[in-house]
Each structure stands twice: as structure tokens, then as C-alpha cells.
Amino acid sequence: MSAADANEHQSAAEFFDRRIAALGDWRGETLSRMRSLIREADPDVVEEVKWVRATSPGTPTWSHGGILCTGETYKSVVKLTFAKGASLEDPAGLFNASLEGNTRRAIDIREGEEVDASAFKALIRAAVALNAGRARGRSAAAGAESGKPAAKPVLLTGGNPQVAKGDGDAPVQAYIAAMPGWKQEVGRRLDSLVVGTVPGVKKAVKWNSPFYGVAGQGWFLSFHVFARYVKVTFFRGTALAPVPPGGTDKDARWIDVHEDDLDEAQMRAWIRRAAALPGWGKS
């Protein structure tokens, strides 16, 4: 990051701080809370100020490869508008405004209302993945025209591959092939365990993570690369025995797999049981 970019980023962050402080009521608290969730979901997010006019100081905006969402405040509502919300999956039904358009979707938050933190962070990650996928699509098209091969997937914070969402085995294999170092072998072993345990398993990549599910039942497992481990999440983990050790959510639990410590027998038992339970979302 250049000095100019750093100064611009700092100025935007200061603008956000001032805007939140100036509200001085539940709207400022709400905007601050949602800002924190966005940063947790995407540590590489960029805060910007857009649409500065003589009659307006500008709109708080979060971007990563393009605009993710904006944060506007009105008398009775805090509105978070996702620039490409119509293209995002929203299994928790967070979008409750701007539903009539073909591009944007918004979340209106009123005083006293709480937004599901996990579902909101999933939307942010989905928006990042969508921007990245469109950028790769443009790059691939340009490469095809020039005869050059498409660029390899970008590794995000922690080494997680940035792979466009898609259904089927191909995007999952693209993700696994891009997993760095020893984690790639863990990914291959996990994929093999699932395929060998659950005949006809459904696959997809969502939010830069492989998902596995059963048709008509939903998704039962996903995994995600972090710097020191691969996080394997069971969406109905509290119903497994023994319960995987990570997490405090109502249903989901996970286990962090480090190098050379994948217990295949235990993982296979968890997979078999998880696939027999009602899953999460749609598969």
C-alpha cells in the first residue's frame, strides 16, 4: 500500500469514526456493530467514502474487489445496501428492503433489532467471493482472447483460496488444487472421505469454502483454510457423538485439523452421521 493509499484509508476510517460518534444514539451503536462484523468477516475489507456532494458528506462504503455494501442512516432505520445483493444467496432471509430490483438488496435495521451475526458475515463473504469471481471471469475472457492461461486463484488471509462460487465437483477440485502446502493433502483426504462415505453427495463452493450436502436435505459439512489449520465445520455438529470440539453456536460445531492429525476413522463416523441428519440451507 502506497503512502497515498494509506492516507486515504486512514481518512476513510476517521470519517467512519466521526459519523458513528456524531449519531450518538442507537443508530451509531448499530452502525458500529455492523462495521465490526464486516471487518471480522473480511479482514481485507477497504473502507471508503463515496458520493460526496455539497449537500452530503458522503456515504460509508465497504469494498473488496468492488463495492460490497454501503451503510446509510435515517431517522428510524440503519440501511445496509449490498451492491450485488440480488446475486447472493440469503438462506437466513436477512434482506428485507430493496427487494424489487435486479441488482441491489438491503437490510433495514430498526431500533432494538438484532441481525444474525453468523448469517450476516456469510453474506459479506459471499459478496467478496462474487466480486472475485466476476474479476476472474473478466481475466479468463481476456486471457482466452490473448491466448494466455487464466490466473491461479488468489490466496486470501490465512492462505484460503479465493474460488468463485459454483455447483458440482469442478469448483471443489479447483479449491483443493489451490490449497497451499500440506493443507492440499488434507483437502484431498477430506474430499475422498466424504465421497467414499456418502454416495451421490452434492458439492459446491460457497463463500470460498467447499460445501457437501445431500439432495433435499441441505448441506452437512464445509471446510476452510486458515494459516495453521483447516477448519472442518459440521452444520448440525451438536447432534454428533462425540460433539466436535469447536464452536458455541446452537447447531454448528467444528474441528481444526492440523498437519498430520486427521483422524480418518472419527471423521468418517461424523460424516456418516451428519449426512443422515437434516442439513443447512439448500443442496
Describe the overall structure:
With 283 residues, the protein is α+β, with helices and mostly antiparallel strands. It folds into two domains: 123 residues, Aspartate Aminotransferase, domain 1, CATH 3.90.1150; 122 residues, Aspartate Aminotransferase, domain 1 (Alpha-Beta Complex), CATH 3.90.1150. It has six helices and 13 strands. Strands 8-9-10-11-12-13 form a six-stranded antiparallel beta sheet, with helices on one face. A five-stranded antiparallel beta sheet has the order 1-2-3-4-5. A hairpin with a 5-residue loop joins strand 6 and strand 7. Helix 1 packs antiparallel against helix 2, helix 2 crosses helix 3 and helix 5 crosses helix 6. The longest helix has 30 residues. The chain starts with a helix and ends in an 8-residue tail after the last helix. The N terminus is likely disordered.
Largest beta-sheet details = 6 strands, antiparallel
Strand content: 15-25%
CATH T-level fold name of the largest domain? Aspartate Aminotransferase, domain 1
**Any idea what the shape is?**
elongated
Strand order of the largest sheet: 8-9-10-11-12-13
The total count of helices amounts to 6
Total strand segments? 13
Mean pLDDT: 87
List the secondary-structure elements in sequence, H or E: HHEEEEEHEEEHHEEEEEH
> What is the helix content?
25-40%
Number of structural units classed as domains: 2
Radius of gyration: 20 Å
| Structural class category | alpha+beta
Indicate the CATH architecture of the largest domain: Alpha-Beta Complex
Q: Please identify the top-level CATH class of the largest domain.
A: Alpha Beta
| End-to-end separation | 40 Å
